Amino acid sequence: MKKNNQRQGLITAGIVIVLLAVLVLLDNAAWVPPMLLTVLRKGVIYALVAVSMNLLNGFTGLFSLGQAGFMLLGAYSYAVLTIPVENQTAIYQQFKNGGLHFSITESLTNVMGEFGTLIGVIICLIIAGAVAALFAYLIGLPVLRLKSDYLAIATLGFAEILRALVQFEKLGPVTNGSNLLYGFTSFSNFQIGTLHLGTVMPFLFSGACIWIVVLLINSTYGRAFKAIRDDEVAAEAMGINLAKHKRMSFVISSFFAGISGGLLAMYQASVQAVTFKSAMTYEILLIVVIGGIGSITGSILASFLFVGCSEWWLRFLDNTTVVSLNGKIASVIVICVAIVGVVALIFWRNRKKAFADKRNTIFLTLIVGAVLLAGQIKFAISSSLQLPLLRSGFRMVIFSIVIMIMVLFFSKGIMGDRELPDLLQKRRNAKAAKASKGGDAQ
Amino acid sequence: MSKNVLKVENATMQFGGVVAVDNMNLEVNEGEIVSLIGPNGAGKTTAFNVITGVYAPSNGCVWFEGDKIVENYPHGKMQKLYKGQNNGKYSHITAPTPDRITKLGMARTFQNIRLWKSQTVFENVLIAKHLRTTSNLFSATFRLNHAEEKRQREECDELLRVMELDGVRDELATSLPYGQQRRVEIARALATQPKLLLLDEPAAGMNPQETDELTAFIGKIRDNFKLTVFLIEHHMDLVMDISDRIYVLDFGKLIASGTPEEIQNNQRVIDAYLGVSNDA
After folding, report:
1. Nearest-neighbour CA in chain B from A215: distance (Å)
2. CB of B13 closer than 8 Å to CB of B74
3. Partner residue facing B116 (CB), from A231, A241, A294
4. What pairs with residue B60 in β-bridges?
5. B116 CB within 8 Å of a chain A CB
6. What is the count of structural domains for chain B?
């Protein structure tokens, strides 16, 4: 048992070191597409928020939609505390004598150099988390008495209130009203000599936080959270203090949401309240649902997939014109294959039904498919390079359709409530069982 | 005379105009097995819910090991509606949540089984140990409490062995047959280290053989864990076999109490169960 644990620890450490090495390489190699770095950075930050939301929604069973609000608190706390003093007059030009007139990272850098910056960033991120946690504690006192949808509505409203409050003019000397905050320490500030560390740092910060959440979930408190999720009445009857544990989960979740808000501020290198709309909460909720409610690895995978799709892989759908004939042919082929594939999929799913039952579905599918194909063929034989259907923003339409299909057909998400190591373990067990069976047969 | 573990004093539970439990007085002494029986809808489960803190009684109080743990009197809206007795006798509100009562040493099972469905048998029992943990959030997260964690796991394994559940340790709790699920629920209640065990219809939905096993089992755990047992039950075989004393509840009122023989020959109990013919 102990030996096994040691082996597992070594394997984990090995994976982590290899991952970090690859990231450092990606950061410094010239051939890496900049989009990849964007996806990696934003993806890992979203992974942390998704995990923090999953702790609340998936492991404690509290349906809360306040994540964007807590991220906003974290982002602003981080930004306000780290803007260098000499930049403050320029940034707060609308507000006379605005800004805090000190900067934690700057002061520490002056004292300890490069290392001081790192310490300062860590301190500020923890403060960012603590501010979010404090607000979560206060709002949690009344709000956590609510259940399910009512809790979601209350927290959503709270997040919107926070956004309005930050933009409030009287708070301008601190938050700069609805104007941009910028010029603070961001990921591009991290480098040793000529070695860029802009992608490794978010991975380190997020990874550490996610690791803490995983430890928490597997501790006695995490088990109590799961008991509350599964059956509140039984949990209370077995001596689990509902109010205390719900508040605990809410505060911890908000703490990590605050930290990820700080990280997002570092990634964007600027903070503005407008970005933290409720749409952001829905994006995160989507990641949690796609990854599987109650699965940490699911949330992490889904956040990379989500960010990859929305930022990078579906970008080509936003192009309205193709440059050359080759591009035109390629796009026609890709879209035709997609249409035929979807039609075939619908046919295949209905293959066992009687014709009378599926008549409407089949006709509708055929008509829509034929119209779309005709459009493509018309485009192929015409001389214009203006793509039909595709407009800027069409990416989001396709993305929404993909998500709808996802939720309809894989309602448990990618991972369900399992974790990646569980799946590997299961395969190993199955292999072992097979091997022993084979042995018996002989 | 051994001291009483549980004492319910003048407890009345009124929902709107309906008096579900009416002026109930009962005592459960240390080491006894006491049953609460009554026809359907007599208010037995409501009585349990009052004792375990799910409901605060409309009037009356509950004592546990010599301490008053629950007390309430008609106030607010209930003041006008109250139909029960002893109005004005109590003047304090003590209404702890169920988890605090469980922490004092009173554990219960449910009439309709309420196991944590995504957890294994072992985890179900282990989670019930959470209320006895001394580690805080920080030490639990960073595994500074591994000595305690290890001890708790060993205790749970021991408990499962005593309950003859070690064969299904890693099965999902809700995938077990009905009788075993009941036993997991009892094991889970025992994991909270209670002094008083409250069983709400432990034999509901069991066949005669399972019921016989359960009868032997309840006596065994009483001796093994030095418990006092208070149970609600419909199976008269089981009740008459294991009870030291029986209380009978009908329409919220206690109509009889005594040893199994006394109850069997009590005319009011027979009337409550079988009804009174009009032409008698």
Report:
1. 5
2. no
3. A231
4. B72
5. yes
6. 1
Residues B132-180: pLDDT tens digits?
888 888 988 888 888 999 999 999 999 999 888 888 988 898 899 888 8
Flag if B126 and A242 touch (Cβ within 8 Å).
no
pLDDT of res. A55 = 94
Residue B4 lies in a domain: yes
Burial class (CB in 10 A: 0-12, 13-18, 19+), A373: middle
Identity of residue B171: E
Q: Is residue B203 situated within a structural domain?
A: no
Average pLDDT, chain A: 85
Residue B33 within any structural domain of the chain: yes
* pLDDT attached to residue A234: 93
**Distance separating alpha carbons of residues B199 and B255, to the nearest angstrom:** 21
Instruction: Decide: A290 and A413 in contact? Cβ < 8 Å.
Output: yes
Determine the pLDDT at residue A314.
Answer: 76
Q: Reply yes or no on whether the pLDDT at A440 is more than 50.
A: no
- Which of A399-408, B191-200, B210-219, B222-231 comes out lowest in average pLDDT? A399-408
DSSP string, A235-298: HHHTT--HHHHHHHHHHHHHHHHHHHHHHHHHHHTEE-GGGSSHHHHHHHHHHHHHH-TT-HHH
- pTM for the full model? 0.87
Residue appearing with tokens 């928490």: A216
Q: Determine the Cα–Cα distance for residues B75 and A167; give it in Å rounded to an integer.
A: 46
- H helix and E strand count, chain B: 11, 10
Query: Do A220 and B135 make contact, defined as CB atoms within 8 angstroms?
Result: yes
**In whole angstroms, how far apart are CA A243 and each of A219, B29, B188?**
19, 33, 21
Q: Model ipTM?
A: 0.90
CA distance A87 to A105: 13
pLDDT of residue A442: 40
Strand order in the sheet with B4-15: B18-29, B4-15, B59-64, B67-72
Q: What is the CATH number of the domain that holds B49?
A: 3.40.50.300
Check the CA dihedral B36-B37-B42-B45 and report its sign: positive
> Which residue in B100, B119, B149 is closest to A226 by CB distance?
B119
Bridge partners of residue B159, in order along the sequence: none
Q: Is B239:B246 a contact under the CB 8 Å cutoff?
A: yes
Least confident of A115-124, A193-202, B188-197: A193-202
Boundaries of every domain in chain A: 1-32, 36-284, 321-389
Q: How confident is the model at residue A310 (pLDDT cuts 50, 70, 90)?
A: confident
CB proximity B139 to A under 8 Å: no
Answer whether residue B53 is part of any domain: yes
Q: Looking at residue B1, what is its pLDDT?
A: 45
